[in-house]
Design goal:
By secondary structure, the protein is mainly beta. It has 1 helix and 20 strands. The chain folds into 2 domains: about 140 residues, Immunoglobulin-like (Sandwich), CATH 2.60.40.1210; about 90 residues, Immunoglobulin-like, CATH 2.60.40. Helices cover about 5% and strands about 45% of the residues. The longest helix has 18 residues.
Length: about 260
């Protein structure tokens, strides 16, 4: 029986992966900024969301753990820049002669700026990182400056690994009982896949002793939503999602 269940789960995973046309990371926190990436196999475009301070430059470098020469870099200071590292030392990246980034939105709320942009998987430029839909994880470096002057040395910096998961088709989840919570396990950011017709009014988080730890009273109506549990420690929790007529409990794991 156990082998049969494992086989069914494996087959279901293959079906979902085969049907998926998009993979994405969670909105991942690193220092004073956040990053999210979405890979769309239908359009061969990557959509990148960068969230950082509105009064400072912030930047990421792809497929590296340091400022390695010719590694691809995306920076926002006063505008969106397509750049690359020219030195392993503390030298500001150089801006590409051809900008292969397409700005989708640039919004400021208080002291926080959110920049969303797209780029083809492959640009043909040797200094641009080549994305592939088979990508499961990506190492990046990040940095934040003291001001919006992008030539100034970073004030904080670090490295991070982004993990990609298949984006589930929300049309498969047309009732509260059908919704999916992913990725699971995660670092604390969980996405909810559901139909736009399914309403969620409340999210409650319990520990394994059934103690209520967190309650979120909100009307979630979008097809995909993120629940932030990064303030909780590693372990097993239970997520109760409910509306006025139904409820469901999902076990989630923070690693």
């Amino acid at each position: 029986m156990k082998k049969t269940c494992l086989l069914l789960m494996f087959c279901l995973g293959l079906i979902l992966s085969a049907n998926a046309q998009q993979k994405e990371t969670a909105l991942t926190t690193m220092g004073g900024m956040k990053v999210k990436m979405n890979l769309d196999s239908a359009t061969s475009l990557v959509t990148i969301t960068m969230v950082g301070p509105s009064n400072k430059w912030f930047s990421i470098g792809l497929s590296t753990s340091d400022m390695a020469t010719n590694k691809d870099v995306y920076t926002y200071g006063t505008s969106l820049l397509d750049q690359y590292f020219t030195s392993n030392g503390h030298v500001a990246p150089t801006t590409d002669t051809t900008n292969n980034l397409t700005l989708v939105s640039n919004t400021v709320a208080g002291t926080t700026r959110t920049v969303v942009f797209t780029r083809p998987f492959s640009t043909g430029d040797a200094k641009d990182y080549t994305f592939a839909y088979t990508l499961n994880s990506l190492n990046i470096v990040w940095g934040i400056g003291p001001s919006t002057t992008v030539t100034s040395e970073h004030s904080t910096y670090g490295t991070k690994t982004l993990t990609f998961s298949a984006v589930l088709d929300s049309e498969q989840f047309d009732t509260l009982q059908d919704i999916a919570v992913y990725p699971n396990p995660s670092s604390g950011l969980f996405n909810i896949a559901k139909s736009s017709l399914v309403k969620i009014d409340k999210v409650r988080i319990f520990d394994t002793n059934a103690k209520l730890l967190k309650e979120i009273n909100t009307e979630i109506t979008d097809q995909n939503n993120t629940i932030d549990l990064t303030d909780l420690t590693r372990g097993i929790y239970f997520m109760e999602l409910s509306n006025e007529s139904d409820q469901i409990v999902k076990k989630v794991v923070i690693n």
